[in-house]
């Protein structure tokens, strides 16, 4: 790659369910939340209106609090009985005194919305902050109140206008982190707190650019994501965000540490995709980190040994993931732009070309001596072995591969619609190497990749092609590889 070519940027927004294009959806900015389990050893403290605190998503929180706030306003008229007014006055005085002594309340009280909608939203958030401050005053061990208060602080930081100082946002995020810290101290299994805590730390790191302080914050964020995944392994978004935090960290650390961090980020994106095959953000992010790794490897200028993946192979792998993300979400301008940069790196008119060791087509249990290493091609239609009669596919000066595998019953061919599952295989009856099993409606197909790293590339590519087919987007992929 020439140095003049633009590099690809990752989907850097660490918000849960964030889109590369802000106008494509109205995703919940703080992710899903799990109902906290009741503590059998002690009764929960009662929040306002006699209800126990519980964890919310931010959308649930705002909806409920808006209803509560409106209800309180409706009861604030002169029709209240003297005893009600006196009680309200005493509570307000006590709450005001508590707020003045708490830096979190001071920060929230100083926020004003940039427009009418923002002011209305901030009014609800201020009401929420007072509610949770009051709940914590009544019961300092209410971890749900700490968690929900942290969400309010985090949302308040997001609501600050572009003209607000970064120090104001950072102060709110810092207070949110303190609340998450306390919530997890009281309830060490609160997955949502660790997840959103990591997001808050990441936002603080972004404010600081590529500084030593930012490096430390990114390291903290990765630790919180790791804890969140330990508590709930089935969380592709947390794995994706973990990978993004590592990617950001790799841009700051010394060169000697970068390769290890980048490869760890690759493993997190890949794990996210394995949990959710159509997770286009993780697919795209994996493409960007592979692209960056290719550029770093090329920049070093040292010979690549047999066990390492060459820069050209990394560029080609990067292109596969970016093309797949585009096929799943063809209307995303970020993906379209990246596609224009990497399409020429594909082995067109195929998505992937490489070598696999295979048995004779009609004899999957043939002796190991009958298995042969041969070239395979993958496109939107399926995986096919290149016949012996064909010349090996060679790249033309135009960038496209010349030679086309013929339809031959004596070679292995797997059509995408026939695929049932694709998985790594450690069957001891296979020849030595990284085993691959493609289960089809006609029975399993066993192959062996050259290395385990090569196997990961084949697994992902075949799964992505099938996922694109299952989502009805094969025509988009076909347009990329054959157009």
UniProtKB/TrEMBL annotation:
<feature type="compositionally biased region" description="Low complexity">
    <location>
        <begin position="87"/>
        <end position="100"/>
    </location>
</feature>
<feature type="compositionally biased region" description="Basic and acidic residues">
    <location>
        <begin position="41"/>
        <end position="52"/>
    </location>
</feature>
<dbReference type="InterPro" id="IPR053277">
    <property type="entry name" value="Endomembrane_traffic_mod"/>
</dbReference>
<protein>
    <submittedName>
        <fullName>Uncharacterized protein</fullName>
    </submittedName>
</protein>
<dbReference type="InterPro" id="IPR011990">
    <property type="entry name" value="TPR-like_helical_dom_sf"/>
</dbReference>
<dbReference type="Pfam" id="PF06552">
    <property type="entry name" value="TOM20_plant"/>
</dbReference>
<feature type="region of interest" description="Disordered">
    <location>
        <begin position="1"/>
        <end position="103"/>
    </location>
</feature>
